Every structure is written in C-alpha cells, then in structure tokens.
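so my prof wants the structure for this chain in the tokens format not the other one, which i didnt know existed until like an hour ago. anyway here's the sequence
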Amino acid sequence: MFPEINSGTVFFLYLAIFFFAILFRYFLAAGIFYYYYYVWYYEKFHAKKLSRRGAKKAQLKNEIIWSIKASLIFALAGTILYWLWTKDHTAIYLAPDAFGYWYLPVSLILILLIHETYYYWVHRWMHHPRIYKTVHKVHHDSLTPTPWTAFSFHPWESLLEAIILPLILLIIPVNIYVLIFYLLLMTLSSVINHLDIEVYPTGFQKSWFGKLFIGATHHHYHHAEFNTNYGLYFTFWDKLMGTESSKMEGTESDLNL
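here's what i got, hopefully its the right format
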C-alpha cells in the first residue's frame, strides 16, 4: 500500500508528513471550536463559560507553541509505528472483514478501555509532587483551559501520551479504519474537554449513560481543583477510586470558579 521506509531520508520524509498531518488536525479541530465559541458566537456562549477567569493571549500563544512540540513527538511515534507496520510487526490490518465486522466496534472499545486505564493512572502519577513540575506543570499552566490546550504538553508528557497507542497496536488487532476513527476521536475529545464551555445537553449529562462520559465540565474541575477528575474519556476510574469532584452533582451556579 505504501513504500517501505528503507533509509534515513525516507524516514524523515514520513516524519514530516505525519507531523504536518497531526498539526493540521490540531489546528483544524481547535480552530473550529475556538472561533465558533469564542469569536463568532462570543456573546451567545460567553455567559456559559465554566471559569470566571479568562485566558490571556500569552497563554494561547504558549499553548500553541507547546502543542507544536507535542505534535512532533506524536509524529515520531506515528512514524516508528508505520515503520513497524511495513515490517509486519504490528497487529494493524487492512481488510475490514478480516476478523469479522462485529470485531470492529469491539476493537474500538478495547482501545478506549485500555487507553483510559493507562491514562488515569499515569495522570495521577504525574500529579505526584516530585513529578509534577518536570512533566505535567506545562499543561496546568493553562489555569483556564481553551481548545488550544488540547495538545499543550511538556515533551515528557507528550512522550507518555504517545507511547500507549503504538504498544496497544503491537498486540491487539485493529483495522486501519478503526485506527483512523480513533485518532480523530482522540483529538475531538481533547478539544471538547478543554473548551471550558459544556457542549453536551443537560439531560444527557444527568442521564446514567451521560454520566459515564467526560465533557468540559468534568475536566474543568480537574484544572480548577487539581486533584480530582483524572479520567480521559470515561468517569468510571474516578468513581471507583473516589477522585471524582464532589461538585459534579452540583447546580449550574456551582460551576463557575
């Protein structure tokens, strides 16, 4: 399907391709949400912001700079994964029916649950006082999250973020189309969770099904309270480990911090 990576020049060529693809995905997703909610319909959504404090221009600039650095690390992981795929060392497969169509959603759920578990515990570890300043502080410099915060990580954190998916794909069979969907879902979820404006309907948030998922409100409290709400996509680890914010059951007036 693609030529093999067989030289340093070709490797860096693919690194550049992955880098610009990831960067494009970041700017497209974050840009659309930022301009829709913060610029084009500012008057409509400003009152719905979860944080009282606003994000300064310097914060947005720093978030974009860190995100560009993070995208380079994500691209390196992607290039290595692609190289392993050309050598048939991964479990990525092309034909959607190779394991049966029923397996496509099953594999997606497996990736989600494994990634969620990895991220929750690594995220808690990054909040350890001896680790935090070196690895995770950059992300929390965004006291008020914005769509541009989605990829704003220190290189060490970016590396921790980047390694889990390739490791999963070395073991668990995943169709290429499921993988592409998951990568898009990762970016969209991160942007929505850092929007600082809740996009999910109130009825959905209060339903038993809606309470399984993390949105802007849930992650808002992580940035506001620091030691709660460590999850990535789902709330079950926070609930099981008692780290979910007590304010998640509060009224809308309780949300502004």
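also thought this was worth mentioning. The longest strand covers residues 92-93.
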